[in-house]
Amino acid sequence: MLKFNYYSPTRIVFGAGTVNEIGTLIREFKVKKVAVVFGGNSAKKSGLLDIVEDRLKSEGIDVILLGGVVPNPLLSKAKEMTKEAVKFGAEFVLAVGGGSVIDTAKFVAIGVASPDTDIEEFFFQRKKVEKSLPIGTVLTIAAAGSETSDSAVLTDDVTGTHIKKGITTDYNRCKFAIMDPELTYTLPKYQIGAGVADIFMHTSERYFTDILGNHLTDEMAEGLFRDIIKFGPIGVKSPTDYEAMSEIMWCGSVSHIGLTGLGAKGDTPRDGDWSCHQLGMAISALFDSTHGATLSAIWASWANYVKDANIQRFAEFARKVYGTDEADDEKCANKGIEKTVEFFESVGMPVNLHDLLNRDVSEKDCEELAINCSYKKSRSIGSFKSLSYDDMYNIYMAAR
């Protein structure tokens, strides 16, 4: 186990009806103006925004509503919202939504704290983040884990690169996260399934690493795998099943809070492999596909491509997570990959690019994806097995 410095300051307020505590929670920060970031009309139609606004105003807090965040959130929208929040004089940023909304809110909070600096400077990492407004969230989608993570991801629609990338900093840590499973009851089943896939993948990215020997960390990851595999399909089938939706919601936070990667980071910038996320983000950037679905579409092709780097790791995954009793490591590993494909299918997720995009995928498509993912052949990705442009192209081709 490598050295680590674990930091997770986010206060979790979990359970039915906890949204009613929003005014009390923000009051503790002694602020008078709050920018509320949200997505589409669902938060309005459900009455959730009315509840949030009412609770804040009852505490004497002024509110500006900043809506319009889309899935695969855009840099341009974050820039627009930042200007409005600066003009309003926001002292706190509250995200009401899922990962896309929270990630946008994080950039807005950074931008408002440095009003003389264009947030492009932070996005492209030309300038280091040194301050931010406090951020909180009312979670409505269990998926990205952004409510407990230190990262935020946007798509560059400003300079024309259409690269999806993000920044990682402790300034991205939410001060609190209100997590009420009942707020997820009205989600479309596809969104629930995509969230379940994303949760699985946040755990997978940390589990399949070149740094081994983290036994307790592995046990936590394997337990999370088993839990999401059990309750994910139940939640997709029955979105108002409180037990299933509460398990999915808590799995979402724990999967991205860092616990399942402890001991695998050391002095390196990442606590796992993260190849599938990079491969998936290129798909989202070029084809505007749902994030979780891009991960399920690419996972098996990635797994089959890299498994020989440590076949025993994939065999251990199959034995601990699925109870596979094959004695031969290669057969066991293959069984684990097959079982994972079946799991993704059980929550309605695509397991190849054809199913994801609903069309044939050409060699040219794969070339464009590999160019985007490799930043025009300027970088490699992954730690379980380092992947070059050619490797990325081969994985996309295998995923067709």
UniProtKB/TrEMBL annotation:
Alphabetically ordered keywords of this record: Oxidoreductase
Listed GO CC annotations: cytosol
GO molecular function: alcohol dehydrogenase (NADP+) activity; butanol dehydrogenase (NAD+) activity; metal ion binding; methylglyoxal reductase (NADPH) (acetol producing) activity
Superkingdom classification of source: Bacteria
SUPFAM superfamilies: Dehydroquinate synthase-like
Transmembrane parts of this sequence: none
Domain Fe-containing alcohol dehydrogenase-like C-terminal, residue spans: 196-399
Annotated ranges, domain Alcohol dehydrogenase iron-type/glycerol dehydrogenase GldA: 9-181
Matching PANTHER family: ALCOHOL DEHYDROGENASE YQHD
Protein name from the UniProt record: Putative NADH-dependent butanol dehydrogenase A
Lineage, opening ranks: Bacteria, Bacillati, Bacillota, Clostridia, Lachnospirales
